[in-house]
From TrEMBL:
A Gene Ontology biological process term: protein refolding
GO molecular function per UniProt: protein folding chaperone; unfolded protein binding
Gene3D superfamilies in the record: helix hairpin bin (1.10.287.480), Hsp33 domain (3.55.30.10), HSP33 redox switch-like (3.90.1280.10)
Organism: mine drainage metagenome
UniProt entry keywords in alphabetical sequence: Chaperone, Cytoplasm, Disulfide bond, Redox-active center, Zinc
Keyword Chaperone part of the UniProt annotation: yes
Record Pfam families: HSP33
Any one GO cellular component localisation term in the record: cytoplasm
Protein name, per record: 33 kDa chaperonin
């Protein structure tokens, strides 16, 4: 089960795209965290979308895609790291209808939103992660029923680039296809003609992509999809990538989080439970801190021995 992400360009270079197929990484996420089928499918789409968006950007850092909901789905998060390491999780409260839409899951009271964060790997002094927020409703306040609609709206508003997106997920794979019209360069005498040609090329690419069915997207390899859909456009493929499951949790990171909670809070948990037990919401790894471990947390840094490896 090979996971593949392909960046490509069509025809005269007016249309760029990304296609992704996740199998082994998606299987690993499902093995570690099981959810009801309808929300599991949404999490798969969210994960594929995070890889697509990361693949469409020239950015050295982590892309974090979140759905913050006001319905049964309270939170869904997918992260794509610079090397296309992926992890995802979600928090669900209450009962879920079998065929519930995104609007019913996360925007029942009109307060749901989608948050996209770009966290640079090497932050400059004073630099903060970029964050874009978009409602789970359209301009008229009507709730959107799919993640595809939400992200197309985000791309149109934030990047101001015409985009077309398709996502699908099932028990076997999570997949996605993203097309974008290249920005106009402008300034030349033939700019108007070039813009018209670019518009036509993007319209043709969207028409061809719209013939793609959900089952085809889930079944066919990225290479086969590009050949079937765009063989006349002579797609050029760049930098094939291999997405994979990777969780960035560690005992050191959990220790830092406990230090931020403070000595009083940690000692209170120790008094009640005898151990501070933390489980990663992404991968399920368990990190336990007993009295000795906890004492080391609040010693001066120079005297602290290396933290032991994780215990599960």
């Amino acid at each position: 089960m090979n996971d593949t992400l392909l960046k490509f360009m069509l025809g005269a270079g007016h249309v760029r795209g990304v296609v992704v197929r996740l199998q082994s990484s998606w299987a690993e996420m499902r093995r570690r965290r099981r959810h009801a089928a309808v929300v599991q499918g949404l999490l798969g789409e969210l994960t594929a979308a995070s890889a697509l968006l990361a693949g469409s950007l020239k950015f050295d850092g982590t892309l974090i895609l979140q759905i913050q909901g006001d319905g049964p789905l309270r939170l869904a998060v997918a992260e794509c790291q610079p090397d296309f390491g992926l992890r995802a999780t979600m928090k669900v409260e209450g009962l879920i209808e079998r065929e519930a839409s995104l609007r019913e899951l996360a925007n029942a009271h009109g307060m749901g939103r989608c948050v996209i964060t770009l966290d640079p790997r090497k932050q400059l002094p004073g630099q903060q992660p970029y964050q874009g927020i978009v409602s789970l409703a359209d301009a008229d306040g009507r709730g959107l029923d799919s993640l595809t609609q939400v992200l197309e709206q985000y791309l149109a508003r934030s990047e101001q680039i015409p985009s077309w997106l398709m996502l699908a997920s099932d028990e076997q794979a999570s997949c996605g296809l993203l097309l974008q019209r290249m920005p106009d360069t402008g300034g030349s005498a033939g700019a108007a003609a070039n813009q018209a040609e670019a518009d036509e090329d993007f319209s043709r690419a969207m028409h061809l992509a719209s013939t793609l069915g959900r089952e085809e997207l889930l079944r066919d390899s990225p290479e086969d999809l590009l050949r079937k859909l765009f063989w006349q456009e002579e797609p050029r493929i760049f930098n094939p990538q291999s997405p994979h499951f990777h969780c960035t949790c560690s005992k050191l990171r959990v220790a830092d989080m406990l230090r931020m909670l403070g000595r009083d809070e940690v000692e209170s948990v120790l008094k009640e439970q005898g151990e501070v037990d933390v489980t990663c919401e992404f991968c399920g790894a368990r990190y336990g801190f007993d009295l000795v471990d906890a004492a080391q947390l609040f010693r001066p840094e120079i005297n602290q021995p290396p933290m032991p490896t994780q215990r599960q």
